[in-house]
Amino acid sequence: xxxxxxxxxxxxxxxxxxxxxxxxxxxxxxxxxxxxxxxxxxxxxxxxxxxxxxxxxxxxxxxxxxxxxxxxxxxxxxxxxxxxxxxxxxxxxxxxxxxxxxxxxxxxxxxxxxxxxxxxxxxxxxxxxxxxxxxxxxxxxxxxxxxxxxxxxxxxxxxxxxxxxxxxxxxxxxxxxxxxxxxxxxxxxxxxxxxxxxxxxxxxxxxxxxxxxxxxxxxxxxxxxxxxxxxxxxxxxxxxxxxxxxxxxxxxxxxxxxxxxxxxxxxxxxxxxxxxxxxxxxxxxxxxxxxxxxxxxxxxxxxxxxxxxxxxxxxxxxxxxxxxxxxxxxxxxxxxxxxxxxxxxxxxxxxxxxxxxxxxxxxxxxxxxxxxxxxxxxxxxxxxxxxxxxxxxxxxxxxxxxxxxxxxxxxxxxxxxxxxxxxxxxxxxxxxxxxxxxxxxxxxxxxxxxxxxxxxxxxxxxxxxxxxxxxxxxxxxxxxxxxxxxxxxxxxxxxxxxxxxxxxxxxxxxxxxxxxxxxxxxxxxxxxxxxxxxxxxxxxxxxxxxxxxxxxxxxxxxxxxxxxxxxxxxxxxxxxxxxxxxxxxxxxxxxxxxxxxxxxxxxxxxxxxxxxxxxxxxxxxxxxxxxxxxxxxxxxxxxxxxxxxxxxxxxxxxxxxxxxxxxxxxxxxxxxxxxxxxxxxxxxxxxxxxxxxxxxxxxxxxxxxxxxxxxxxxxxxxxxxxxxxxxxxxxxxxxxxxxxxxxxxxxxxxxxxxxxxxxxxxxxxxxxxxxxxxxxxxxxxxxxxxxxxxxxxxxxxxxxxxxxxxxxxxxxxxxxxxxxxxxxxxxxxxxxxxxxxxxxxxxxxxxxxxxxxxxxxxxxxxxxxxxxxxxxxxxxxxxxxxxxxxxxxxxxxxxxxxxxxxxxxxxxxxxxxxxxxxxxxxxxxxxxxxxxxxxxxxxxxxxxxxxxxxxxxxxxxxxxxxxxxxxxxxxxxxxxxxxxxxxxxxxxxxxxxxxxxxxxxxxxxxxxxxxxxxxxxxxxxxxxx
Length: 1025
Description:
Blueprint: H1 9-15, E1 28-31, E2 34-41, E3 44-48, H2 58-66, E4 73-75, H3 79-83, H4 88-92, E5 96-101, E6 121-128, E7 137-142, H5 144-151, E8 167-168, H6 175-191, H7 194-208, E9 214-216, E10 223-225, H8 245-251, H9 254-266, H10 270-283, H11 294-301, H12 314-325, H13 329-339, H14 342-351, H15 366-376, H16 382-393, H17 398-408, H18 418-425, H19 429-436, H20 439-453, E11 477-480, H21 484-490, E12 495-500, E13 504-511, E14 514-518, H22 527-530, H23 537-540, E15 546-557, E16 580-592, E17 595-596, H24 602-612, E18 620-622, E19 625-628, H25 631-643, E20 648-653, E21 663-669, E22 680-691, E23 700-709, E24 714-721, H26 727-736, E25 739-741, E26 753-754, E27 763-765, E28 773-778, E29 780-783, E30 792-795, E31 798-802, H27 814-826, H28 832-836, H29 886-891, H30 922-927, E32 953-956, H31 963-972, E33 976-977, E34 988-991, E35 1003-1006, H32 1007-1016
Parallel strand pairs: 5-8, 11-21, 16-18, 24-26, 32-33, 32-34, 34-35
Antiparallel strand pairs: 1-2, 2-3, 3-4, 5-6, 6-7, 9-10, 12-19, 12-20, 13-14, 13-15, 15-16, 16-17, 20-21, 22-23, 22-27, 22-28, 23-24, 25-27, 28-31, 29-30
Helix pairs in contact: 5-6, 9-10, 10-18, 11-20, 12-14, 12-16, 13-14, 14-17, 15-16, 19-20
C-alpha cells in the first residue's frame, strides 16, 4: 500500500482530497482520474503519466498545465519509512495540535472569530502554510471549547484530540485547564455516534496494516521488499559478491555500527583503530565479506568531517528531551554540568522515562539514522526539532539514542580522526579526501580501483589529488617559526615572504556565474562579507570561467590602502568605518578552467596568478609578497612588519606544492620568537569559571580572567582562558579555587562584577580580592566588545605562570591594561638575538609603574608587546621594581623587560636595576649595560639579596599575619616553605604571636623573628625571637 504525500503548496490543493491507493511496481496505477505506471529505479519510485487532463476543475487544470500536462511524482524517502511507521494516529491524517497561553492577545479564534485575550489558554491546529513557497507550518488558534465543537463534524479519518497527550507541549498545561480539557474530551466521546466511533477505529486498523511495497526480481521472479539492500558496487563491500538480505541487514544495522565504534574507542593505538575499520569493511560482521553500505559506514564514522548543521545545541537537546521524557529539565541540566556529556545525560534519563520508554531490542538501520539526520538539518524551530527527535527516540534503545545524540554533536568519542578511519579504506584515501572533501567520490574511486586491480598484491593504484569545484578544499597551513635561522634551514631554495594579513581566510569557488565562499573551517562565509565579490571577480579574472582561489578577506582603508584592525569585518563594526571597503587579497590559485594547479610549485602558481589576474584597487588585490634567500633580508622584513604593527609573515619555499591540510608553510609572529618571549602578557585575576566538555566534562576547565577598574570600583572581564594547564593542575584547581555556582544566570551575577550576558560564567569567585593571579600570555592585545575592560582582550590566551607571589593589588589594573594595549600597538621590542634564535634579552612583562603621588600598591606586571620602560616621545616614565616581588627578582635569570639602550654607545639595552643590579651571570652582564646614573627605588635597605635562609624549611601557621608576604620573602632569601601535610619535614615552624606549640619537633619561631632576619640581612639566633 502506497500513500501519496504532498510535494508543494499548489499540489496540496489537489492531493489533500486523494485517498491512499494501491500501486505495484510495473503495473498500471490509477490516482484519482490520473492514470500512469509506477516505475522503480535505484530505490526511487515514480508515477509517470502523459495524459492530458483537460476535464478537471479550473484550479486542478491550472495545476496540471503548470506541470506541463504531466505529473512526475518522485518519492525520495524509503517506502519502508511510510509503511512501517507504528504511529497510526500520525498516519491517519496530517493534523497536529499544540497549546500555550496567549502571549500578546492579538490572535483570533478560527471558529468564533473573537480575540483570544493575553494569558488565556488556547489550542492550535498545525496546518501547512499556504503562503510560503518553501512549505512549512502555521498555527490556527482556537478556544478549547471551539475546537472541540469542530471535532463533532469531523470525518472518521480526521485526527482529533482523544487524550491530553495528543497535544504537543501539554506539559505546560495548568491543572485547571487540564480539568476543562478532560471534561471536553469526555463530552465529545459521549456525543459521537456508535457508527462514527466504529469507522474511526476501522480507519486506524487499515493504516496499521499497511505493508512495504514489494517488487519482483527480474532475474528469478522472487518478491523483494523495497527496503532490501540493492547496493551499487561503488558503495558495497570489497568482494563484489552477492549477499543475502540477512547479511546486508546485519552489516547495515545501527547496533553493529555501535559495536564497531566501541571497539575503535577501546583500542589505544591509532594503527589498531585503522586495522579494526579495515577488518570490518572487508569481512563484515559475519566474517565472510562486508554486505552493507560502505559509503554510509564511512560517512557516519566521520561526523566531524562530513558535517551536517543541525541548528541545535546541548541545552536545547536537554530541554526538548526533558519534555519528551517527562523529566525535570533542571535535573537533566545539572547532570549534564556534572558529567559534561549530553549523550550520557539523555541516555540515563531515557532509561528511567515512563512517558517514552526505550525499546528493548535495537532494530534501527543505518539508512533510518541517516535519513533522520538529514531531516533534522531542515528544522530550525523547536516544535519541528522536538517532533523529529521524539520520533527517532521511539525506535531507539537507550544505547541507540546515546549514539544518535553523539552523531548530532559530531563527536563519537572514539578518539580517531579522519586519517585513521580512511586509512582503513585505502592508504591513499585520506590525502584524496583532504583535497576534495567529497567522501562519496573518494569511496567510489577506491572501489573502482579495487575492482580494476582485482585485489592483486602490489597492484594498488594511488588516488589522484584533485580539487572539486564548489566543494571546499582543506586549506594548507603553516607551522610556527621561531627564528630566522630556523626559516633559512627549512627553506634552503629560497622563499616567498608574504604578509600575514589579520583578516579572515576565504576560499573562493567560481563555476560559471555561481560563487561559493568557504572559511578556514570549510563553513560558508557570512554573505555580508563576500556577496559583493561576484561583481569584481569576473573583472579580475576575465578568462576564468571555473576557478578556486585561496585568499584573505579584510577591511581596507580606501584613503591609505592599509588594512584595518582584526575583527572589523563584523556587520556592525564595519559600519563604523566610513572610508573602507571589504577587499579580497588573493595569494594562491588551485584550479583554473578545469586545470588542477595544486601539484605545481608555488613559483609557477604565483606566475600563473600574475598572468591571469588583473588587480581592482581596494577590491581584488594581490597579497604582498617578496622573494628572499638571505638571512639578513628576512630579518629586515620581519623588523619592518612588526614595526608597522602587522601580524607577521608567512614563509613559503619556492618549490613547495599545495598540500591540503599539511603544515609545510612557516609563519612568523611576534609571540613565536624566542619561545614566546616577545608575546603580550598580563597578570589577571581569576573571576569565574566554565564547565568543560568531553574529557573535561564536569570540571572547571575554562576560566574568566579580569582586572580591577579603580575608577568604577568594579572588576572587568578581559578574556576566557583554558590553555596552559595539565590535567594534574586542573584537578588541583578544583580544590584551590573558592567558587560559587551561578549556572550562567545573569540575575545571579554579583554586583562587583561587570560582565556581559554572552560571557556570564557557570561559577564566580567568592571574593575576587582573595582569588588567584595568573600570568596570561597571548599573541597580542585585541579589541573584543564582548569584554568589559574597555573592550580590550587577548588573542590566543594561555596561562604561563601561576603568580602565588602576587595579590590582587599587584595584578594589572584597567588603567595599566590600557597603557599596555596602546604601547603594544606602537612599538615592537625585537632584538637581534630574538630574530636570529639566540637567548632573548627581554621578556615582555612590564613591571610596576609607580608615580610619586601614588600611595597604593597597584602594579602592572602584565602583558604587552611593550613595556613601561619604553619612554614615549612626550613623557619619561620611571620604572620601579615591585615591592612585593622579591621572589621574582631572585628567581628570574634575566630581567623581565627590555629598557632603553644605554648612552655609552654600545647599543646594549639598559638593565632596569642599573649599577645596583644583583645579577652576577656573565651572560646577563654581556647582554645588558648597567649605567650608574639610573635611580632605582628599592623596597629594602640593602641592595643585594642574600641566601640567609638557605637549607632551611619553614612550616607557616595560618595564624601568621601577612602570610603571603612572609612566604615570598622566605623564598626570596633562598628558603623553602613546606605544605601543611609535610610539616614534619620542616626545620622551623613559624607561629602567630599568641600561638603556642606543645612538644615541637622543630624550632618554633615567631613571625617577628623572620622579619628580623630579613631586616638585619642575617640569620638571628632562635633564642632572640
